[in-house]
Amino acid sequence: GGVESIWVNKRFAFHSRQMQAMVDAFANELATVRFQPSSRPYASCADGTIVGVGQTPDTGYWIQHLLKPVRFAGMLKSALATGLSALVNTGPGNGNSRLTSRYLRGVSEYDKVGEISVFAQDAAPQSAFLSALGQAWQDGAKIDFDKLRETGAGRCHLPVRPMYRERFWIDGEALSTQTEVPQWPTATGGA
Questions:
Q1: To the nearest 10°, the Cα dihedral for 21, 90, 106, 138?
Q2: Is residue 63 helix, strand or coil?
Q3: Helix or strand or coil: residue 119?
Q4: Are 56 and 37 a contacting pair, CB within 8 Å?
Q5: pLDDT tens per residue across span 159-185
Q6: 36 neighbors 54 (Cβ within 8 angstroms)
């Protein structure tokens, strides 16, 4: 029995009443944001539900998210109930990925759900995002690469092999197009 937990090494209890002292400053910052209706549904950690297309979380939503515990398990349960095939962690570090893996472990109906962490602890954000995008594509996600090109993304340098720019062809005459196939002895008789 018991409750499984992970120690989070932070100076403040984020998503709790301990954040009350910064609510006014946070609300002032939020007042400068022009919120847009969501273009896709997403699972909310604020209350563990699905936020539908066209819904617009407002300042009150974000303040409540700041002051109340994260409903991570509820969010995962709601998201997985939609039949998705991949979860993408866009938060910093890999804490959410570890929690997701623990939640999915041993739940047979979720065995085929992929989990991708976008922003690894020490990776540059653009590199981390593109690596996660490549992982998602490798796992079968449909990626609109034309949209990606519209962002100004360009070529990247890939790791090279040790023989990079070295020639390994055999010099000499071209091989004949008629190659004699050796005849191998056949086993006869017997033991």
A1: 180
A2: helix
A3: strand
A4: yes
A5: 555 555 566 566 666 555 555 666 666
A6: no
